[in-house]
Each structure stands twice: as structure tokens, then as C-alpha cells.
Automatic annotation (TrEMBL):
Protein name in the entry: NACHT domain-containing protein
Organism: Friedmanniomyces endolithicus
Residues spanning the signal sequence: none
WD repeats: 892-920, 973-1014, 1057-1098, 1099-1140, 1141-1182, 1194-1231, 1373-1397
Segments of skewed composition (Pro residues): 21-30
Length: 1503
């Protein structure tokens, strides 16, 4: 008789059948004969295989041997099942690690976890090449402890800390095991001999080594969870020793194998294992390639791009000395890190840069190149400098590519970030991580041309400052070659930001005049030689002596020192009629002083209009001004096709104007001599643009272009192009409103927003602004925005330019007329608020512009009312929202842990926030995250220096100083022996004073980081309330209920301020130096005169402890933040409360005024930063009942349900009140029900609306009659009726009511109570009529818990429609620290017996469930469970869409598992319990005690 299966086996087989998808297809059932090949189904082995296993086991010590033996398969069928389970867990690991770049460093190399998992899968498949272990039984299949291996892999699945090392260890184990299998096959073929005996011993030793390695880990895993936490299964040294010993044993076995098996079979099998490594490498490279595709690069910026590739290089024999100097610098191991080639416009810097880049490339020394070009879109600014360089380095060096790909996987929007994080994560860190073996060149040079043409002066200096950090890179000799004009930002950058010993400078003007003349002469001679050669087939009249020595000398004299003159003249002469054109150039009066390049460009342009009569010439001139004027003023170059679309001029007309201008414009040509239709037209040199726009030549240059007028035309044309059928909702046709921008291919965006449209979206505002005209309500702009504002915002988001929305709206506002543009101004103000409030989601999911951004905008928002029709397309009913925009201007999200501190920069343009995970620098104007500094030690406080150049971050007992512009750590101040509580910079920013819980004040030199002075404090610092006065002479801090005032230099106490009645939590000095403000647990804020030691004002209004205070710069306003989640402003003179701002969902712990005092920043434990308008009153309309509706609404909702008919919502709150809401109106239907319970955790309403049941903290539950408003209360544990929650109930841990559910016939109530922190739950069925408990059943027995087999948490409950069956959904953990699976159980309501147990979708547990009308299935949020199948069978299948749900992070409303609506922070269910749905209706309880409910339109597919 077979032994009764253990409870462990029963749960594993019935509860969780692991079959992750996709597994290889199972073969057809075996024929009966095959299935009975051995009567006992015991495994059979090839030649002496069982003895090899036995010998390997005997080679182990007793402990290892017993560990392995207990886990070995007993027959071929258990081998098959165990192997499948291992394969299943590995597949789950693959799903978990898919598209993740988790990595660790092993033996000096970065190892990616998902790569190792892929190799494990392939190695397992190698074991089971046919798909049936029975057909391939050998000692490796039989002799590996598959059950133990599964347990190791389950730890890897659940423990992120051990995941990387365990996966790598298993990859090593399987790799060596596969190799061992090859050796065993070879041994089976060998004839008995002394050589085969030696071979056998080698195989046994290798076998035993593998089993010993696995056995050690399995023993540790089998310990209790508590014992195991202190001991990892393997560490790095274990892996290293195992691999090194395996190499030795494999080498020995391999030699013995070759002696015994001289055939090809062994070599072929070993080669097949090597193929896995090759495939793994290819897959890894494909993953890298996919991640690197996220790099946004500047088109045409490299030296060999189409835009730069055809431009000239230095001719042979020219620039000899300079090029040799540059080459020597690049190859000199002791050379400076940077080379700066400086010269005025037209001296040939770019030509030299192209030549240098090409030469370095030929020598294998070029790492990357970037050629700036003013007015060339992405090449004119610094945004894509580092991504473009990183892309080139990643293509060259494998390890650099790995590191860059990893950075992009972690942050797919890295290319949108500021220069600092781009430089660090795309260049500095990848190059530091790259090992020497992968970068074999002696030097790697990055060429950056025309740095002065980078648009932002500050960015130029930042680039140089960042590039100077390359000296820390030791893996390669990195060199930077930079060219520029001697513009001030570049000069200052090299002078101030780059140490003098790091760069070598050469000025082209300092090159000897004779050298310049020689090089220009050589250039002319070569050009004329080529002209004569190319004209032989057309004109044989050009003599060999042409143009003559004197002519060349004259041309050289006119050109020097500007190579651009020689270049332009030679191209002009070569285009047509060389002799005639040269004569025209020479006839220019050589004695007339040159005005810039007038004498070069005017003769060339004259050829453009030298047609027909004066009228025709005027028309041609106007065409030139319109077309060429557009080209030179475009913010990004366009092709002729795009120009045609933008300017509404036929392409042939554009081509006709451009064809004679190839000497001054870089015109791309096709092979058949036509202008390329899709390649942009660019300038050869900026001097041509300067010449055409030079207002001083206006009267004598008939080609002069009025820049303002032309910008006006371009702005109008951009708006026209976007207005006429181009922009529309969902322009990329992604359909799902929750689609993330990062999920959509760039090619899709490009096809949807072609070149001209993308240009118009990005730059129409800039052209309107640059036109210099005031914008009014009458004109093209206002009607365009009325129709396309949201479409334009969506398009910019798809283009990755969400921050341009805010910049554009503000720029447009700056040129709108206050008198005749009132409607437009109102629209722009409203649009700016909408964009600021929703910047994060518009950037990440563009279609949420029409959904979330509009839905939660104030009801009187101009934008909302203007586009209300779009909302009605999505929503049948909508939540009540504030009437107008409140004082909250922006919500900054990005921190993952609680906020601790805030500080504005002195200029008020940036804000720094600190939290337990990092410090972030924000752009106050746009809300954009500029920089992020992550530290293992949480950031307890932050500060700016007075000059704004230095940041101070408090990290435990030390202070880190960083450069504001680059983020570089400049000093680390170490000396305190306790947590730093305060620090302040001196007025000259040269010193910093700090205090700590070690009761000392220390003075530090900011430049050197040295401690200058130390002062002991008389009283210990008990909290972080200490502050310095603005002159650093006085400190104030809380000590118990008092505020102590002391001299900073001596520690002498000056005053002891007494008045608070509880602990002081916050102190701040006002700028007058004699006034201190303090906050306390006593809920008051007080103002003190420290000169006389008296209280000046007492501010009362907060309802909970005050945690932070601050004063405005003019000392007239006091701000305070509290546990009551409000920010309050107080009049310092009168003590009257001026404002109260609400919005945070947790305690406010930091507050700060901007420099102008108009903006207040607050930081909260809800992990957000809010910016408030201090000048604006908070006038928000809340979803409330009548004024006499009872207890305050300002209590978070903690439980909700929707009535069966979907017409009513019930909410329970933290304070024990229950409210009923009408879905249609959003109003309360009656006065709130006041219970004597605390923290309502569950509510339910009977189908007939006559019974309201609720459960609360401490195990109390109650019933109410909604009509009468009466309430009764019971103790769920004892069943006794109570008046209120007793102290005895409060003392019981883990007895809260988890769920409460009224049966459909309203006769039974299901109540669950928690029995332990990890074990949910005791389930009770309570009879309404008898008021007695009918049944009680436990989801898991005490025996199961003690064995460590099962942890279970109830997640959902449901009654069948006939009330006879109860369904419970749970999250189940079979192995400590293992994964959580979803499980559904069915119980008989009458007997309380378990009738069925089902597995829901693997590793998903249901959060709601409902029986279908016919009772044949359960619909859940993870799928439909078919109950018609036999007991214990049936995975969950995708259900029909019958209900909306919430994402696991409670930020998204989902339909069919897809995100459709993003919830702003204030509309989320922060308690994770205040959410309910009914068909298409969804209701969310808010922290302020209100309810938001809305329903989707039927076209979403929800019923």
C-alpha cells in the first residue's frame, strides 16, 4: 500500500502546479510497451552508470552524502516531474528578469543576470534534447538532486539579494554537469583498459565535486528562514573555488577522455556546449542593441556623417606643422588630456577638425566626434552631445556598450536629462567600468568642433567642467580635442573650469603669416588645377598658365587669413564659366575696404538674379529672400521636401532657386545630379548667414533679409501646417490611452510626425516670439490653440519634448498683448497650470493629456471646458473636482522614500529635496528633474551656499559638498561622531558651520574640507531642530520643551525660551537675526524675540504636531507644516492665519520660501514635493455634504464598497465614521453614521440596502440600519455585543477584521480576522437573525504553519448567488522567502468544509472575485476560474471584461489588465483599501475624506 502523501506533497500537488509558460511541448503519451520496459519503472543506466553515481556519493562526506541521497529521484517518472519543476522555476526566473539589466561583478567582469538565466535554460534543454527524460536516463539525470536544485532556484526567484550569485552558480553547475554528461558518454563507448579506469576516476572526482557544491547550498536552504537570513547559500569565493577546481578536474578528465576516445564524437559534443556560449553572447549583444536604440543622437553631428562627410579636409601639404603637433599630442602618453584649437571665424577650424578626426580614425585612435552647428537643431545645443558620443563609443567597445545599455535600461529617458547625469551614466561610469582588455588602443580621442556654436553659454562652461573629469578614467588614455572661436564662455570655461595643466592651447592667429599664406596658396593652386582638368571636355580654351601667378597672389592676399573666403571663391568659380567668373571677382575694387565677407558673397549672389529684365530680377530676389531667408533662420535644417510643405512652395521652385547656390549652401546631390529630396540643406559657414542678416549692409545689399519679418512668416506657416488636418488626437495610432512613450518605436513617431510637422511642433512658438510682434486674440495663434492645444502637447510628448510645452507657453505669454490679448492670456495661464500639474504623466504617457490631465483639472479650467467633448468620449460620469486651480502650482514626484529636507537656490530657479534614498535638483519653472544624487546613507538635510555654487548634503555623521553645475563631489567633511543636525554656509561661501548629535559645532574650510574649529555645546542636541542665524554667530535649538539660544563661537547660553508645553520639533531664524520661530508637538507655532527672551506671537490652528517652520525673506510671513498634512501661512505681526494649503497625503516635514517669497515648497512623507503660490488663496470646492453633515471630512477613507445596483457608495474612515454617497450627484445621502469603532477596515451593503456591515481595528464589527442611522457593535473574537472597543481588545495584536461580506440573501455575514502577522485568516460565518456565529474555519492549520510549509494572506472573498458557497482568494507562500502564488478555495457555507481548491494565475493572487450568474465560474482580476472542471484542476483563463481594476501600485485604473487612467497623487487609494468598482464604475477614497467616482463609456468594453 502506497504511503499517504504528506501535507507538504498535497499542497504542492494540489495548490500550486508549477507550469510556467512557455514550456517545450510535451511528447505524445508513451505506448504501453515503452511504459513497461521495466516492471518497477526504476531507471536503467548505461555501462556501469549506477556504480559511477554510487562512487561519486561515496566520495562525499557523510553530511553531503545524506543531503544528496534524500533528494535523488526514485524512478524515471519522478525524474521527469522533478526536471520539469526545475525547468519551470527557471522559466519563471526568465520572466522575472526579462528586459531587466540586473548585474553583478564576478571575477572582474560585469555579469548580467538575464544572460545567465538564458544560459541555464539552454543548458537544461541540452539535458533534455528529446523532451522525455525516460528516453535519456543516465547517471546525471538520476544523480542530480533536482528537488534541491529547485529549492535553490526558488530562493533566487524570491531573494533579490542572492539572485545574481545563485543564478551564476547554477549556470556553472549545469555547464559542468553537461560537460560531465559528455565524458560519461565517452566512457560508455570506451573499452575496458587501464586508460578507461583512469578516465573513470577523473569522472567520479568531477561528479563528486558538483554534488558537494550543490549539497552545501541545499543544506543551508533547508534551515529555517530565521537561521538562513544570516547565511547566504553561496558567496563569491564559493563560486570562484568551485570554478577553479572544475577547470582542473575537467582538464584532467578531458585528457583522459581523448586517450580513450580518439574519434570525432567527443569533440563534436564538447563543441555543441561551446555553441551555447556563442548563442548567449549573440543574445546579449541583441539585448544591448535594443537598449542602445534608446539613445537619441544628433543627426549629422559626426565627422563622417552625410552633412560633414562632403565638406573639405586639409589638402596635402597644408597645415603640416599644426597637424603634426596635434598627432604628437594624441599619441603622447604624458600629454595633456585636452587640446584647444582656437581661431576667429573663417580660419579653417572645422576643416582641421574633420582632418584630425579622419586621421585619428585611420590610425584607430578616434573614439567619437561631435560637430556643433548653430541653427542646426540638435547640433546647436548640448542636449544630445553626450548621447551621440556615447553611441559611438558603445559601437567601438563592447564593455562600454554593455554599461551604456544598462544605464538606458534603468532610465530609458536618460537622453532627456540634464548634462550631469548624462555625462556620468553615459560616459564617465561606462569608461571607468571598462577593463583594459576590451579597450586595446593606446589612446582614444574625442573630437568636438565649434563648441562656441552651442547655444547656451552656461552649457558651454558645464561641458568643459564635465570633460575635465576625464582624468579619473584609468582604463584608457582618453583625450579631448576641442575647436572654437575665442568666445567669452569658452575662454572662461578653459580658464576657470579646466585646470591649466589639463589642456594644451593653440591659437590659429598665432600661426606664422607665411604659413597661412602658403596653405591658402596651395589650396587655390589645387582648386584651379581641378577646374582646368574638369573643363577639358567642355572648353579647351583654358590655357595651361591660367590663372597665372599674379592672379593667385591677388586672391591669396584678399583671402588671408580666412580660409572660408578661398573656399567660397573657388566653389563659385568652379560652378560655371570659370574664366568669366574669375574676372568678375578680380574686377572688385581691391582698394575698397572689405565689409566682412561682402566682396566674396555679393558677386556670387548676383548670379542668382542675373536673368531677364528688372521686374524678373526683382521677383527672383524676392524668391531668394523667402526661400534662403527661411533656410538660414530655421532652428533645425530641413530638406527641400519638408521646406515645400512648410512654405507652401512647390519643390521645383525651391530647387530652381537653390541650384546656383552650391558655393554658399551645402546642397546634397543625388548620383544623377539632382538635389536630394529628403536630406537637409545646410550652410557651409555661418558667415553667410551673418552677411545676409547684417543690418549695416541693408541699403547696399539687395539680398538683405529682415530677420523679424522672416520669423513672422515662418511662425505663420508653422501654425498653418499644424492647423490644416495635421494634428489630431492619438496621432501615433496607439489606441490605448495608457501607452508609455518609451514603448512606441521611433519609426512610428517619425512616420506619424514627419519632418516638417515635427519641426513646426517644436519651433512655431520660437518663430512667433522672434518676430517681435505682439500676439493678440485676433490672429492665427488663439484659434489654433482653441482647436489644437492638446494635440500640440501630445505631439511634443511623442517627440520627447514635454518640457518644451511649458517653455513654449510661457514664451508665448511673454509676447501676448495685455490690452488686446486678454482671452489668449487667460488660456495660456490655464494651460501652463495644466501642463505644470501634469508634466510627469504627459511626458511618460502622452494620451493621458486627454484623459487624466483633463479629468482632474478644475471644473472651471478654460482648457477643460474648451475640450470637454473629449472627456465625454471616455467617461460617462466624472468625479467632482475643485472649481478653480488652487495654490498648489506643481507636484514634483520622483523620490521613492520619505522626504526629509528642502532648500531653494539663492536665485530661486532651482530647488533641492533630500530624502532617505537620494537628493534631487528640480527646475522650479518646469518641474523637471535636473539632477539626482543617490546615496546609500539617507540624506537628512540639504543646503545651498550663498553664491549658489555649492550644495551640502547631510549624510549621517558626514557632510558631502558638491559642485552645483556638475554635481561633482568637491569635499567630504568627516569629523562628527553623531548624526549631523544642521549646517550653514558663511556669507562669502568660504566656510561652513555644522552641528551634530555629538554636541559639537565645527567650522570647515569649503575649499579644502579641513576642520578649522571645534566647539563643545553645553547641552546635548536631542533632535534635528538646531539652526544658525544668518550671520553664523548664534544658534538656536530645541531642548525638550524649551528653545535654547547660544553663541556659536563660545557655546555660552544667551536665552532660554520657555512657553511650549511639549517637545520642540522645529526652529528657524528670521533674517533680522533677533527673531526665532519654533514649532512643537503641542500643535502651536511661536515667535520669539531672542534679545529679551520673550514670546511675541502664538499661532494656533494646526490639529496635530508641527514638524517644520520657515520665515519669508522679509520676515513678515511664517510658514508651518504639520502631521495634519496642511501648510499654513501666518502673519508674523498679527498672528492671524493667512492661508491653509492642503494636498499632501502624509505629514509635512520640510518647508522653504523662495527668494522672492512668492513660492513655498513643502516636502512630505508622501514622497512628493509641492510648490505653492503664496500670494493665492486656496479656494477649492470639495466633495462634501451639507455644512451640518456631522464629523469633519478631513479623515482618510480606509474602506469602501459599491451597492449591488451601482447607485450608492459606502465609505469608512480612520475616525470610525461611515458615509453614504450618491453616485450620480457625488453628494452624501444622509448624515454620517458615527460608530464607536476605530479605523474602519471593511464595509459592505446588503443587496436590499437595509443592512450595512463594517469591520474595524482590534477585531470589532458592527451592523447599521442606514435608514434609522442606528449602529450595534460586537467583538468578532468572542461574539459578545459591546458598546465600544475595550482596552483588552486593543491589547490583542493581529485581531483586526480583514474582510466583511453580506450574503446575497442577507441572512449571513462573512467576517475574517487576522490571526498572525503573516497568517490571514480565521473566517467566520455569522447569522444575522440569531446574532450568533454559525461556522468558523481556518485557511491553514497550526501544523502547517509550524512546519514552515505555508504562509497565507486572504486577498478576496465572495458568496455564490444562492449563498451556499463561499470563495476565498489568497496569496500563498509555500517556501519561506519564496514567491507568492494565487489560490482560490471553495467552502460549504452550511458545514464550513473545504470543497475545492484551485490554482489561479501563476504568481498572481486575486484582489476581487465574483461568481458568474450560473455559478460555473469565478471571475477575478487575474482571470476566470472554471469551476466545472474536476476538483483541483484548472488554471485561471483570461476573463471577459466585466470590471475595471487598479494597478498593483494604485496609480493606474486598468481595463483588461491595461493601464487606461493615471490617478494624480491626491486621487489615489493610499490605504490600499479605499477602492471599489462595479462594472464600469470605479470609486476611490481620498486622504481628505472625500470620494471620487467615475464610470467609463461602453466603447471601452466594460459593462
Amino acid at each position: 500500500m502506497a504511503p499517504k502523501p504528506s501535507k507538504r506533497d498535497w499542497f504542492r500537488n494540489k495548490l500550486v502546479v508549477r507550469s510556467p509558460s512557455p514550456l517545450p511541448a510535451r511528447p505524445a503519451p508513451r505506448p504501453a510497451a515503452a511504459a513497461t520496459r521495466t516492471s518497477s519503472s526504476e531507471p536503467t543506466y548505461t555501462r556501469n552508470g549506477s556504480n559511477i553515481l554510487a562512487d561519486a556519493l561515496e566520495a562525499l562526506d557523510r553530511e553531503d552524502r545524506e543531503t544528496i541521497r534524500t533528494l535523488l529521484p526514485t524512478n524515471v517518472f519522478t525524474i521527469d516531474a522533478a526536471f520539469d519543476e526545475v525547468h519551470g522555476v527557471v522559466s519563471e526566473l526568465g520572466e522575472l528578469c526579462a528586459n531587466k539589466r540586473w548585474s553583478w561583478t564576478y571575477k572582474g567582469h560585469k555579469v548580467y543576470v538575464h544572460d545567465q538565466v538564458d544560459k541555464v535554460v539552454q543548458l537544461l534543454d541540452k539535458f533534455k534534447s528529446v523532451g522525455d527524460v525516460v528516453a535519456n536516463v543516465d547517471p546525471i539525470h538520476v544523480g542530480l538532486p533536482w528537488a534541491g536544485i529547485r529549492l535553490i532556484l526558488e530562493v533566487a526567484l524570491s531573494d533579490r539579494h542572492q539572485r545574481a550569485i545563485l543564478v551564476t552558480g547554477m549556470e556553472l553547475s549545469f555547464h559542468i554537469s553537461n560537460r560531465l554528461k559528455v565524458y560519461l558518454d565517452a566512457y560508455a563507448r570506451a573499452s575496458p583498459s587501464l586508460a578507461s579506469d583512469n578516465f573513470r576516476r577523473s569522472v567520479v572526482n568531477l561528479y563528486a565535486h558538483i554534488l558537494r557544491f550543490l549539497g552545501c547550498a541545499i543544506r543551508i536552504q533547508q534551515k529555517s528562514a530565521v537561521s538562513r537570513t544570516a547565511q547566504a547559500l553561496w558567496d563569491t569565493s564559493d563560486l570562484t573555488r568551485f570554478e577553479e577546481r572544475c577547470d582542473t578536474l575537467c582538464s584532467r578528465a578531458g585528457e583522459e577522455a581523448r586517450i580513450c576516445d580518439s574519434g570525432e564524437s567527443l569533440r563534436i559534443q564538447l563543441q555543441s556546449l561551446q555553441e551555447i556560449d556563442k548563442i548567449h553572447g549573440s543574445l546579449s549583444r541583441l539585448q544591448d542593441k535594443a537598449d542602445l536604440a534608446k539613445l537619441i543622437t544628433a543627426a549629422g553631428a559626426t565627422y563622417d556623417s552625410y552633412a560633414e562627410g562632403e565638406l573639405p579636409r586639409c589638402l596635402p601639404g597644408t597645415r603640416i606643422e599644426l597637424l603634426k603637433l596635434i598627432n604628437d599630442w594624441a599619441t603622447d602618453p604624458a600629454g595633456q588630456r585636452m587640446f584647444w584649437l582656437c581661431g576667429v571665424a573663417g580660419t579653417g577650424k572645422s576643416t582641421i577638425a574633420r582632418t584630425v578626426a579622419e586621421s585619428l580614425h585611420e590610425d584607430g585612435l578616434l573614439g567619437a566626434s561631435f560637430f556643433f552647428k548653430r541653427g542646426r537643431g540638435d547640433r546647436s545645443h548640448a542636449t544630445l552631445l553626450f548621447p551621440t558620443i556615447a553611441r559611438q563609443l558603445a559601437d567601438l567597445f563592447l564593455e562600454v556598450g554593455h554599461a551604456v545599455a544598462s544605464a538606458l535600461d534603468e532610465d530609458s529617458l536618460l537622453c532627456d536629462k540634464h548634462l550631469q547625469p548624462q555625462f556620468e551614466k553615459l560616459l564617465l561610469q561606462p569608461l571607468q567600468q571598462a577593463g583594459r582588455p576590451s579597450i586595446r588602443t593606446a589612446s582614444v580621442v574625442i573630437v568636438i568642433d565649434a563648441l562656441d556654436e552651442c547655444e547656451n553659454d552656461r552649457n558651454i562652461m558645464t561641458i568643459l567642467r564635465l570633460l575635465s573629469k576625464i582624468e579619473v578614467i584609468t582604463s584608457i588614455r582618453l583625450r579631448i580635442f576641442v575647436t572654437s572661436r575665442p568666445e567669452l564662455p569658452v575662454v572662461l570655461g578653459f580658464r576657470k573650469e579646466v585646470r591649466g595643466d589639463l589642456h594644451h592651447d593653440v591659437r590659429l592667429e598665432d600661426v606664422e603669416q607665411t604659413t597661412i599664406e602658403r596653405d591658402i596658396r596651395i589650396f587655390y593652386e589645387l582648386q584651379f588645377s581641378q577646374i582646368k582638368e574638369s573643363n577639358l571636355q567642355y572648353d579647351d580654351e583654358i590655357s595651361a598658365e591660367w590663372p597665372g601667378e599674379s592672379t593667385i597672389a591677388s586672391l591669396v592676399d584678399r583671402a588671408k587669413p580666412l580660409f572660408i573666403v578661398a573656399f567660397t571663391v573657388s566653389r563659385y568659380i568652379a560652378e560655371a564659366d570659370p574664366i568669366g567668373r574669375l574676372d568678375k571677382m578680380l574686377r572688385q575694387d581691391s582698394n575698397e575696404p572689405l565689409t566682412g565677407l561682402k566682396d566674396t558673397y555679393l558677386p556670387i549672389l548676383e548670379q542668382v538674379v542675373a536673368v531677364g529684365d528688372a521686374s524678373q530680377r526683382n521677383i527672383r530676389t524676392a524668391e531668394f529672400q523667402h526661400i534662403v531667408g527661411s533656410i538660414i533662420l530655421l532652428s533645425n535644417p530641413l530638406s527641400t521636401t519638408a521646406l515645400s510643405s512648410l512654405l507652401v512652395i512647390s519643390r521645383p521652385e525651391i530647387v530652381k532657386v537653390l541650384q546656383p547656390l552650391s558655393s554658399v549652401l551645402n546642397i546634397p546631390w543625388t548620383a544623377d545630379g539632382r538635389i536630394h529630396p529628403t536630406t537637409p540643406i545646410t550652410l557651409f559657414h555661418l558667415s553667410f548667414r551673418d552677411f545676409l542678416l547684417d543690418a549695416s549692409l541693408k541699403d547696399e545689399n539687395k539680398f538683405w533679409i529682415d530677420a523679424r519679418k522672416m520669423h513672422g512668416i515662418l511662425g505663420t506657416q508653422c501654425v498653418r501646417l499644424l492647423d490644416y488636418g495635421t494634428l489630431r488626437e492619438d496621432i501615433c495610432a496607439v489606441n490605448n490611452p495608457g501607452t508609455r512613450r518609451a514603448e512606441v518605436a521611433k519609426s512610428t513617431v517619425h512616420d506619424s510626425l514627419p519632418e516638417a510637422v515635427a519641426y513646426a511642433c517644436r519651433y512655431w512658438v520660437q518663430h512667433v516670439v522672434d518676430s517681435g510682434e505682439h500676439v493678440t486674440d485676433v490672429g492665427a495663434v488663439y484659434p489654433f490653440l482653441e482647436k489644437h492645444l492638446l494635440h500640440w502637447m501630445e505631439a511634443l510628448s511623442w517627440l520627447g519634448r514635454a518640457s518644451d510645452i511649458i517653455h513654449g507657453l510661457r514664451a508665448l505669454r511673454s509676447v501676448t498683448s495685455a490690452q488686446s490679448g486678454t482671452q489668449l492670456l487667460s488660456l495660456l495661464d490655464d494651460a501652463i497650470r495644466l501642463a505644470l500639474s501634469n508634466r510627469y504623466i504627459i511626458d511618460h504617457a502622452p494620451l493621458q493629456t486627454y484623459v487624466s490631465a483633463l479629468l482632474f483639472a478644475p471644473s472651471q479650467s478654460i482648457v477643460r471646458r474648451m475640450f470637454a467633448g473629449g472627456l465625454r468620449k471616455y467617461f460617462k460620469t466624472m468625479p467632482r473636482v475643485p472649481e478653480r486651480w488652487g495654490a498648489e502650482m506643481q507636484k514634483l514626484e520622483g523620490h521613492k522614500r520619505r522626504l526629509t529636507s528642502l532648500a531653494f537656490s539663492p536665485d530661486g530657479k532651482t530647488l533641492m529635496s533630500g530624502s532617505k534614498d537620494c537628493a534631487v535638483i528640480w527646475d522650479v519653472a518646469t518641474g523637471e528633474e535636473m539632477q539626482k544624487y543617490e546615496h546609500e546613507t539617507g540624506v537628512s538635510d540639504v543646503a545651498f551656499s550663498q553664491d549658489g555654487n555649492t550644495l551640502a548634503l547631510y549624510l549621517g555623521d558626514s557632510i558631502v559638498l558638491r559642485d552645483t553645475a556638475t554635481g561633482e563631489v568637491t569635499q567630504k567633511l568627516i569629523g562628527h561622531h553623531g548624526e549631523v543636525t544642521a549646517a550653514v554656509f558663511s556669507l562669502d561661501s568660504k566656510t561652513l558651520s555644522s552641528t551634530s548629535k555629538d554636541s559639537t559645532i565645527r567650522l570647515w574650510d569649503v575649499a579644502t574640507g579641513k576642520e578649522m574649529q571645534k566647539q563643545e555645546l553645553a547641552q546635548p542636541i536631542e533632535n534635528e531642530s538646531l539652526v544658525f542665524s544668518s550671520d553664523n554667530r548664534t544658534i538656536a535649538y530645541g531642548s525638550g520643551e524649551c528653545v535654547l539660544i547660544q553663541e556659536a563661537a563660545t557655546g555660552v547660553e544667551k536665552q532660554k525660551l520657555v512657553g511650549h508645553t511639549s517637545v520642540i520639533t522645529a526652529v528657524a531664524f528670521l533674517l533680522d537675526g533677533r527673531t526665532v520661530v519654533s514649532g512643537s508637538w503641542d500643535m502651536t507655532v511661536r515667535l520669539w524675540d531672542i534679545e529679551i527672551g520673550k514670546e511675541k506671537q502664538k499661532f494656533i490652528g494646526h490639529t496635530q504636531s508641527v514638524l517644520c517652520v520657515a520665515g519669508s525673506l522679509d520676515s513678515r510671513t511664517i510658514a508651518s507644516g504639520s502631521v495634519d498634512r496642511t501648510v499654513r501661512l501666518w502673519d508674523a505681526r498679527t498672528g492671524i492665519q493667512k492661508q491653509s494649503f492642503t494636498g499632501h497625503s502624509d505629514a509635512i516635514v520640510a518647508i522653504a520660501f523662495s527668494a522672492g517669497g512668492k513660492t513655498i515648497a513643502s516636502g512630505s512623507w508622501d514622497m512628493t514635493v509641492r510648490l505653492w503660490d503664496a500670494t493665492m488663496s486656496e479656494e477649492t470646492q470639495k466633495l462634501e455634504g451639507p455644512e451640518d453633515s456631522g464629523p469633519s471630512l478631513n479623515n482618510p477613507i480606509t474602506a469602501m464598497c459599491v451597492s449591488l445596483d451601482g447607485q450608492m457608495i459606502v465609505s469608512g474612515s480612520w475616525d470610525g465614521t461611515i458615509r453614504l454617497w450618491d453616485v450620480a450627484t457625488g453628494e452624501e445621502t444622509q448624515r454620517p453614521l458615527v460608530t464607536n469603532a476605530q479605523y474602519i477596515k471593511a464595509v459592505d451593503l446588503s443587496p436590499d440596502l437595509e443592512i450595512l456591515a463594517f469591520g474595524s481595528m482590534y477585531g470589532a464589527f458592527g451592523l447599521s440600519d442606514p435608514q434609522l442611522g442606528t449602529t450595534r457593535l460586537w467583538d468578532a473574537d468572542t461574539g459578545e455585543e459591546i458598546d465600544e472597543v475595550s482596552d483588552a481588545m486593543r491589547s490583542r495584536k493581529g485581531r483586526d477584521v480583514g474582510f466583511i461580506k453580506i450574503s446575497p440573501h442577507s441572512k449571513t455575514i462573512l467576517i475574517t480576522t487576522e490571526r498572525d502577522e503573516m497568517i490571514d485568516e480565521a473566517v467566520r460565518l455569522w447569522d444575522v437573525a440569531t446574532e450568533k456565529e454559525m461556522q468558523r474555519f481556518q485557511l491553514s492549520s497550526t501544523e502547517d504553519i509550524e512546519e514552515g510549509i505555508l504562509h497565507e494572506v486572504l486577498t478576496a472573498v465572495a458568496f455564490s448567488l444562492d449563498s451556499t458557497t463561499v470563495a476565498t482568494g489568497s496569496a500563498v507562500q509555500l517556501v519561506a522567502s519564496g514567491p507568492w502564488d494565487g489560490t482560490v478555495r471553495l467552502w460549504d457555507a452550511a458545514s464550513g468544509k473545504l470543497t475545492d481548491i484551485r490554482c489561479s494565475k501563476l504568481h498572481r493572487y486575486p484582489r476581487w472575485m465574483r461568481f458568474t450568474n450560473d455559478g460555473s465560474a469565478l471571475d477575478t482580476d487575474v482571470g476566470r476560474v472554471d469551476l466545472s472542471l474536476p476538483c483541483g484542476l484548472g488554471q485561471a483563463s483570461p476573463p471577459p471584461i466585466t470590471e475595471v481594476s487598479m494597478s498593483s501600485d494604485y496609480q493606474w485604473v486598468q481595463c483588461d489588465g491595461s493601464d487606461v487612467l493615471w490617478l494624480p497623487h491626491g486621487y489615489r487609494d493610499h490605504s490600499r483599501r479605499a477602492f471599489a468598482s462595479h462594472g464600469a464604475l470605479i470609486a476611490v477614497g481620498r486622504e481628505d475624506g472625500t470620494v471620487s467616482c467615475f464610470s467609463f463609456e461602453p466603447w471601452f468594453g466594460i459593462t
